[in-house]
Amino acid sequence: MSENNKGSILKPFRALKFIGEKPVTIRTPFENRPTAPRYRGFHVNDQEKCIGCGTCAEICDNDAIRMIEIPGLEPEVGSSNLRPAIDYGRCCWCALCVDVCTTNSLNMTQEYTHVSEDLNTFFMFPDTEGIHKTDFPLGYQASDDSNFLDLERVEMEELSPEERGDSFIEIVKGYSKEQAIAEASRCVACGLCTDTCPAHMNIPEYIEAIWDDNLSEAGRQIYKTNPLPEVCGRVCTHKCETACSIGQRGEPIAIRWLKRYAMDAIPAEQYGDVNNFRVVKPLGKSVAIVGSGPAGLSAAYYLRLMGYDITIFEKYPEPGGMMRYGIPEYRLPYDALDKDINYIEEVGVEIKCNTTIGKDIPFEDLHRNFDSVLIATGFHVGRSTRVPGTDHKDVFQSIDLLSKITRGEEIQVDEKIVVIGGGNVAMDIARSLARKQKVKYGKVNIIVTSLETRDIMPADDEEIEEATEEGCVFYPGRGPVEIVIEDGKIKGLKTNRCLSVFDEQHRFSPKFDENDIKLLEGTMIVESIGQGPDMSYLDTYTDKIEMDGRRFKVNEFYQTSIEWLFAAGDIIKGPDVINGIAVGHKAALGIDKMLENKKDLFYNTIFDVLDKSLKFEEGCRKSSSKFAGKFSPVVNNMITDLTVKSKDLEERIKKLIQNENVLIHLDKKLKRPQEAGYFERCIAEEALADTTSEKDFLKNMERKTRVAFGLYHDLEKLTKNKELEFLFGYLKAQKKKQLEKVEKLLQK
Amino acid sequence: MDEKMTQRSVWEKIAAKLSKRSLWMLHYCTGCGAIELPPTMTARFDMERFGINPMVTPRQADILLITGYLSVKTLKRVVLTYEQMQAPKYVVGFGSCTINGGMYWNSYATMKSLDRYIPVETYIAGCMPRPEAIIYSFNELIAKIDRGEANSWKDYYNNYDFYRENQEHTFEGPIETYNDIKADAALFRI
Amino acid sequence: MSKIDEVRDYELFIGPNHPGISGNFSFKMKLQGDKILSAKTDAGYLHRGFEKLMEERLFIQNIAIVCRICVPDPDPNENNYARAIEEIAGIEVPERAKWIRTLVLELSRLASYLFGIGGHVATTGLYAFSNWTIADRDRIMELFEELTGGRVYHIYQLPGGVRRDFPDGFERRVLEVMDYIESRLGDYDDLAINNALFIKRATGIGVITKEQAIKWGVTGPNLRACGVAADVRKDDPYEVYDKVDFEIPTRTEGDAYARTIVRRKEIEQSISIVRQIIDKIPAGPVWNKIPNPLKWKVPAGDAYVRTESSKGEYAYYMVSDGGRNPYRVHVRGASTTHGVHVLENLLAGSRIEDASQIMFSLDACPPEVDR
Fold it and tell me: What confidence tens digit (pLDDT) does each residue in A477-536 have?
């Protein structure tokens, strides 16, 4: 560039070089330039891959994504029935939602044009086709490099097979604080785990409390739905982890270990403070519970908090049921179990051990002395294969052996043992006997055989792997035929190959290959193929109760066919600890409902309030028009004005309720439920019916308008949604104006 | 917008055909979307091919382009500007902020929905919309004028109470307008 | 300033809807004939409450809103925000990410300068020039679209690096665009910069002396046009500015023409920086992963970071109290001093036909003035 300010006369002719050059104009819409391959345009969502976790809605900073329920879509494990819908009146196309998507199903295309005069078309539901159903290529897509999620789990330390092979020390060591906080920070709080958990525990909330290092809040959240967290933190079958959305592409959050970390870190003395436990206000009613397994303890805890007097009757010397007498110590140490049960006793539940109903106390006494009875006795009788030879003295039931090991009694441990069964109980007894064998003989020789092949064995994968590491040898897919006895001693178990376990109707009907015979050597056989209940204590009532196969038949309140008798636990539905806890909690609510009919007094959703608001304005309008022309001109004018305004308010509220897309915007729950009595005081029709004098009418009007004003004022603060806040603010302003007018008239 | 199509006389049809090709846009950059207006107006995308020109005074402009968000301070001026424009006039809402609040949905200083204060003819989605999308929307507007459906300006006279109340509620007090809306409405037999 | 005369003095309200003002901004002026006696700026038309909005969002959500503070030149905002968090939390940025960030900053500076000088020349009536520069700026917008996914708001730099790597063939296209712009510089000079009419109109308008500039806190090209060679890229190098060679052009007159010349010369410097970056950029990762952003707490601390944007010195002061949201973010907008204080002082004593030229030559951008 020259500093030459004196232009020459030929300078303008330099512009001639532009003749023949291509113009820079892009003449849309006749010619289009292509968009970049990475353009952030409108969204598409692969509906098959999307699981409705809601992480995109959480990270969107404009609150543009709402999760809406899809009619006809059923929720499954790991997938909810919600899908994201995006409001293009809020979206800023920053693509944070694409980068945080747990399944990489949300992507962006290269489409960017949408022009319309109808506001409702800007609220779109992204599916695979796009907003205008035209085919646009994908633009900004999710990629693994820039994904925000943390896909690897923090490793949990465990004892190695050599260290743990001969003792009953707990295998899992537990998280330290840094590990727990690191693991808790991976959670995106989607809530799919809560839907899958049988007890619907508040999992995202307590994981967040652990991340915040607020352990008392974590304990409080856990205790809302689960009074046995030390147990579940060790032995739960963690269905939540199979549903975890991080598990779609990575490793799921270690929810069970986090629960264990939180409860281990809270000392037993602080449990009461954590739960804000004060003295329970007694209702004067009592409930008897038979059986102190997970279902019984859970029902006892929640009934006690409601105010009932609870007594638990337990047959065995110590409470706990299958948790104590069925699960070995290396999985669930007894002091952890005691910590939980001690707290349940601390809230005021009385547990009477060594008391057998039917022998020590007749069943009839329970009905006489208590208002209601809950039976939760579980399945403690083992089933037998009943093949020839099972009556030999060296054939045992796994349940009996496990119970004896817990009580510290001596059991027979031979050098070669065969265990029949493929479930978790078989793994428990096999591994317990392996430890005993190691101590007694120095080596392990245990054979485990089951009908199911390896891929459909019902035991947990980790149990089978750990059993293999500890020396158990598996022969899956074989069925017992006969126990071979020679010279009064067992030689072994003769087995056939099992071709299939279930038939076409999925009923249990195994088929065997008679020619494929194998003898599994062993001098002791342990059967572990299933359990059944012991219902002898019911004596005279055994015929009066309806059964559903092996289990009791109950209605939705867990009430049997006898009015004062309820049932929970394995005897109505199994198969694990968390199901027992969930059923116990629901049975407690059922008992409470049956014993005392409580009316639901609260309005919990914004729909209820809007509905009542509409009725109120309608009532105002109708009663006002009834009195039109009956009073002095000034008041008549006010009544006319009131009628017109009420009509306008009705229209507004109706429009809001009927406009479906705006409905989707509405938050369905209030921050704090509103008492029903508030509106009951407001409904105008009955009170105004007797009014004859002008002064009474005005006084009534003033009272009701004041109450409505207060209500709208509260609602304006309660709602989280800006549209509703504007509406309630407007309604409040209208009521204020009316109030001023009425007050002015009253003063005259 | 209740009435889209109205019965038109021959003169009105001819006037629509002529006026749709010479709409003048008010050159008022109200928000951040205005950064995509210079490429549209100048040589790169050249909206002048369609007859749309920038104009400085509202008295001679047809289109008011609300490019993006409106703070409450700007909203007062926009309402005044809108009332100063001569009918028929068209408002085009640009970007997500006019539709439902957009990026600043929880800000104390912006308005959340343009539809409450002045009647809007079309909305364009985007943050911010590309020049190609702007030109597409102008073509749609021209087609609408040709069909006789672009009548949202009449809505201002029909529902003046509604707009006025919303404006006062947001400004927390009455605003002075220098135009007599009722007299204007009588002129159009509304 | 002379006494206010009842007959000859009048007050004029130059409101937000005006083509002579770069954006949504207004003045209240007292004039005597054509001479301006005093002017008062009225900002606040574009206030959105950014600093409060940023406190209510998570750290990662703020990257979407931060670029909207300055509309023509959004990248220094993202850069400042990312570097502030990196300084507080102690996050390392990979080498390649630093080079990419510098490239994005320089391209944004180019686009903003083209827009700026186009705007200034247009106020003198040469509309053809602004047509040219805006059309050429559009090519840089296309480059941004290819790299980041958005034309105007890039949302590309985040704490720990940048979001995506170069697409295939990107370096070649950048060099093509740079060659194209360089070839146009000769035409720009012929049309406007060396045009006798423009020189006559723009010299002597809005003169800032060196002492006034330092007293008023003028930064950026405006300061360099007064003779002070101050540039954050040289004084306090960040990213990879200490590894590339460039000069800082200065002039001494301090008027509107000098400011435009400085910008015009800096375009050449920026082109050379871009070419050096494409040449020397190393390979490697582009992002050091931050933990799950929905559950990420930045440790307590504060940081003050600054960059050189095309408007001037741009700085962020961020305070974090160890939570999920920033506790306080303060933005030092470069146009705040230019658009309010300097403008009022320059307008007093000048003439009404030069008022818009002063504002455009200072390149005061109203969205930055009222955040």
Answer: 888 888 888 888 888 888 888 887 777 777 777 788 888 888 888 888 888 888 888 888
The reply to whether A362 and A450 lie within a common domain is no
Instruction: Scan residues 48-107 of A and list those with Cβ closer than 8 Å to C.
Output: 55, 58-61, 92-96, 99-100
Specify if C2 maps to a domain: no
Mean of per-residue pLDDT scores for chain A: 81
Q: What is the pTM of this model?
A: 0.81
The enclosing domain of C61 has a CATH number of: 1.10.645.10
**Tokens 């697409």, residue located:** C167
Q: How many domains does chain B have?
A: 1
ipTM: 0.87
Beta carbons of C152 and B43 less than 8 Å apart: no
Cα dist from A55 to A67, A96, A149, C129, whole Å: 10, 10, 11, 49
Predicted pLDDT of residue C369: 87
Interface of B with C in 81-110 (CB under 8 A): 81, 103-104, 106-110
Please indicate, yes or no, whether residues A483 and A567 belong to a single structural domain of this protein. Answer: no
Query: Beta partners for A531?
Result: A382
Give domain status of residue B5, yes or no: no
d(CA A497, CA A503): 16
Count of domains in chain A? Answer: 5
- Do A319 and A304 have their domain in common? yes
Question: Chain B contact for A134, CB < 8 A?
Answer: no
Boundary of a domain, candidates A571, A595, A619: A595
Contact present, A296 and A290 (Cβ < 8 Å): yes
Chain C interface includes B80 (CB < 8 A): no
Sign of the Cα pseudo-torsion (C159, C164, C165, C170, in order): negative
- pLDDT for the residue numbered A469: 87
Minimal Cα distance from A124: which residue of B?
B125
Q: For residues A126 and A44, is the Cβ–Cβ distance under 8 A?
A: yes
Measured in angstroms, the CA of B182 and the nearest CA of chain C are apart by 26
Residue A378: strand, helix, or coil: coil
Q: Are A469 and A520 found together in one domain?
A: yes
Which residues, at least 6 apart from A442, have a Cβ–Cβ distance to it below 8 Å? Answer: none
Q: How open is the CA angle C65-C70-C71, to the nearest 5 degrees?
A: 90
Q: Is residue C65 part of a domain?
A: yes
Look at phi and psi of residue A712 and say left if phi exceeds 0, alpha if psi is from -120 to 50, else beta. Answer: alpha
Q: Which residue range(s) make up the domain with B65?
A: 22-187
Structure token pair of residue A497: 């190959």
Chain B residues in contact with A26 by the CB 8 A cut-off are: 44-45, 132
Q: Is A130 on the interface with B (CB under 8 A)?
A: no
Same domain, residue pair A517 and A549 = no
Residues of chain B neighbouring A119 (CB-CB closer than 8 A): 99-100, 115, 123
Give me the residue from C60, C64, C145 closest to A39, CB to CB: C145
The CATH number covering residue A708 comes to: 1.20.1260.10
Task: For residue A459, give the CATH number of its domain.
Answer: 3.50.50.60
Spatial contact of C256 and C342, defined as CB atoms under 8 Å apart: no
Check whether the bond before A29 is cis (ω within 30° of 0). yes
Pair (A612, A733) in one structural domain: yes
- Residue A119 neighbours by CB under 8 Å, 6+ apart: A89, B99, B100, B115, B123
The residue from A506, A532, A558 where one domain ends is: A532
Residues B4 and C307: their CA atoms lie apart, in Å, by 53
Residue A15 inside a domain? The answer is no
CATH number assigned to the domain comprising residue B53: 3.40.50.12280
Q: Is residue B125 part of a domain?
A: yes
Cβ pair C60:A4 closer than 8 A: no
pLDDT in tens, A663-683: 444 555 554 555 444 455 444
Residue A238, min C-alpha distance to chain C (Å)? 23
Range of the domain at A111: 35-148
